Amino acid sequence: MAEPGLILVTVAGGGVGGVGGKVVALLRQRGRALRAMAHHDDDRADALRALGTDVVVGDLTRPADVATALDSVQRMFFSMSLAPSYLEATATVATVARAVGALDALVAMSQLTVSQMDALSMSESHHQRLHWLSEQVLNWSGLPVVHVRPTVFLDNPLFTTLAARSIADSGTIRLPFGTGRTSPITTDDVARVVATILTDPGPYIGRVFELTGPRSQDMNGVAEEYARAGQTSYLRRRPVGDVGRASSLTRRARIVRR
């Protein structure tokens, strides 16, 4: 496939620190021409401009804003924070891209739970249902879509600030997983996958990428990881105040292709 022209990245609330912002940074390092669509013109938008990125401010549910953002764009990364308007935004992007765009790839970020869902699924959350329905809309659109489904982010406050607080206070990890297992992944890893697909999407069109951390484990296993990151054998004996180093545990993502 030819070298990409302008690439559009929709940037969710995380700005440069979120997946979209990190995708922008990676692609700018590779010399790609980038446009970022932000919802607010604030310090986060200025940080994207500082990377040499064209920034447009708009609303993904407004067709005129989406059309402006898509002008002269060849490839797109679609990601937004979950909101009641999520499905409407997906449908707006799909219809406008079909009407005025000339995309050779649209990479859309969803979530891993969608892999377990079907048309009759009712046990998942409303937000998970929105992700599933949004994937269906994009598939029906006929656009050249690639779906990226990461598991929970290791950067999530559950694994950073909330865990750090309970570890510092009592040497325990108090997270709402019960006896369940999880395999968190860093936003850095997800961004690297997305940037790679956007650079040369040809082999990946129509495929689904399920992104996880290196292993699935229960909270006992997660506690051991925190203890190793804090260089202590027993978490209770030496509370880990700074758990930022735990991100090194998922430097490489396990990718399941479908």
Key features?
258 residues; alpha/beta; 8-stranded mixed sheet; 36% helix; disordered C terminus
Describe the structure.
There is one protein chain. The longest helix has 16 residues, at 126-141. The protein has helices at 19-29, 43-50, 63-70, 86-100, 126-141, 161-170, 187-199, 219-229, and strands spanning 6-10, 34-38, 54-57, 73-78, 105-109, 145-150, 208-212, 254-257. The two termini are 21 Å apart. It is an alpha/beta fold. The chain is globular. The model is unreliable at 233-258 (pLDDT under 50).
Strand content: 15-25%
Average pLDDT works out at 82
Helix percentage range:
25-40%
Structural class comes to alpha/beta
Instruction: Give Rg in angstroms.
Output: 19 Å
Order of helices and strands: EHEHEHEHEHEHHEHE
* CATH architecture classification of the domain at 6-151 and 186-211 and 252-257: 3-Layer(aba) Sandwich
How is the secondary structure organized here?
Layout: E1 6-10, H1 19-29, E2 34-38, H2 43-50, E3 54-57, H3 63-70, E4 73-78, H4 86-100, E5 105-109, H5 126-141, E6 145-150, H6 161-170, H7 187-199, E7 208-212, H8 219-229, E8 254-257
Parallel strand pairs: 1-2, 1-4, 2-3, 4-5, 5-6, 6-7
Antiparallel strand pairs: 7-8
Helix pairs in contact: 1-7, 3-4, 4-5
